[in-house]
Design brief:
Elements (H helix, E strand, L loop, with lengths): L4 H9 L3 H5 L8 H13 L11 H5 L13 E9 L7 H12 L5 E8 L5 E10 L3 H26 L3 H5 L3 H4 L1 H20 L5
Antiparallel strand pairs: 1-3, 2-3
Helix pairs in contact: 1-3
């Protein structure tokens, strides 16, 4: 089943330049590529390739005080049924963050359950200023690989017709929209602070 060309034209036309640039043309089917190219040409703008490393472009060292645990945020946690041995998943998350250069601490946290029985939860704590970066690193280095494997398995089970309508920009339109909103809000805040001039 081919995507509806008129829907694609309206969809691309409604996008901001930033949203249009966030689309990877190589991921589109042939008819979508043609309509995408038409929209880019209409705007008389070229879509630049993504930077080799967005983090390399914007990365700046953030001063982290020695007593950062006073303002720590939880980046990952796992419950354990018994004992005090760290959950392997929590240890792995800690190792991933350390490899990314993010300070972190593994902590055993006790809390009562609904029956007032104490349960143990291993938490990976990071400086509060770095919690968004830490969550993204965990997504990238742990969860995204798991998701990709599941997505590949799902795609392999589809017929050719079903695969045609599972283009990522449709199957994950919410994620594409979230990324566009994240970039838009960031760019607007930089402009508000006059950081681009």
């Amino acid at each position: 089943m081919q995507p509806d060309p008129e829907f694609l034209r309206q969809h691309y036309a409604a996008m901001s330049d930033e949203e249009l640039q966030s689309i990877d043309r190589a991921d589109l089917v042939k008819v979508a590529q043609q309509i995408y190219d038409e929209e880019v040409a209409t705007r008389e703008s070229s879509v630049p390739p993504p930077a080799e490393s967005a983090t390399a472009q914007f990365e700046e060292e953030i001063e982290i005080p020695d007593d950062w645990l006073d303002d720590a945020a939880e980046a990952y946690s796992r419950y354990v049924v018994r004992g005090t041995a760290p959950a392997p998943e929590a240890v792995h998350a800690r190792d991933v963050l350390e490899a990314a250069g993010i300070p972190c601490e593994l902590e055993l946290f006790e809390e009562p359950d609904q029956e007032e029985q104490m349960q143990h939860r291993w938490r990976v704590l990071v400086p509060g200023k770095l919690v968004h970066r830490a969550l993204s690193v965990i997504d990238r280095d742990i969860f995204n690989a798991e998701f990709e494997a599941e997505w590949r398995t799902h795609l392999e089970l589809l017929s050719d017709e079903e695969l045609q309508v599972m283009a990522p920009q449709y199957a994950f339109c919410g994620l594409y929209d979230r990324l566009a909103r994240i970039n838009r809000a960031y760019d607007q805040e930089r402009k508000r602070r006059r950081m681009d001039g």
